[in-house]
Amino acid sequence: MTRLIGIAGSLRSGSYNAALLRAAASLVPAGTTLEIASIRDIPLYDGDVEAQGIPPAVAQLKDRIAASDGLLLVTPEYNNSIPGVFKNAIDWLSRPPSDVPRVFKDRPVALMGASPGRFGTIQSQRAWLPVLRTLRTRPWFGPPLYVSNADRVFDANGTLVDADVRERLREFLAGFAQFVAAGCP
What we know:
Radius of gyration: 16 Å
Number of helices: 8
CATH superfamily: Flavodoxin domain
Helix content: 40-55%
Oligomer: single chain
Strand content: 15-25%
Order of helices and strands: EHEHHEHHEHEEHH
CATH architecture: 3-Layer(aba) Sandwich
Mean pLDDT: 96
Largest sheet: 6 strands, parallel
Shape: globular
Low-confidence stretches: none
Distance between the termini: 19 Å
């Protein structure tokens, strides 16, 4: 069984990215599970707080990622880049630096995202690549998933209603699950 963990990089209750992650959890291929994690309880990074110990929400998420076979980051795009709240969470997850290998090194990672704009989250996904490289992850470079016009792809309840996007998401997840199951090259 391939065990993935997914994180949406938005705190908004009506987040398109959280909706995309929920849809993904229902579309993973047989033999794969996708567990949804939250960054809601992760505080703003502060070295003084870190000096007193890693916050419980951070420690728990680090353990969940370390126990997974792969990590799915579902990223919004703010001002053509990475959302601050999501980057903050990843920064906390990389603390202390000695824990980076346990949490991130050689961990298969995939990026996808949704935006009401015309270009999806292409700039945000590109902006994540240096971060993933620094953390020594193993990014999956299969067919990208940039969901544009998200306000038309999801209904008012956050349900994925676009058949084309649903099929692209299914193919994306199948490719990532296959990449994860294949292990290190």
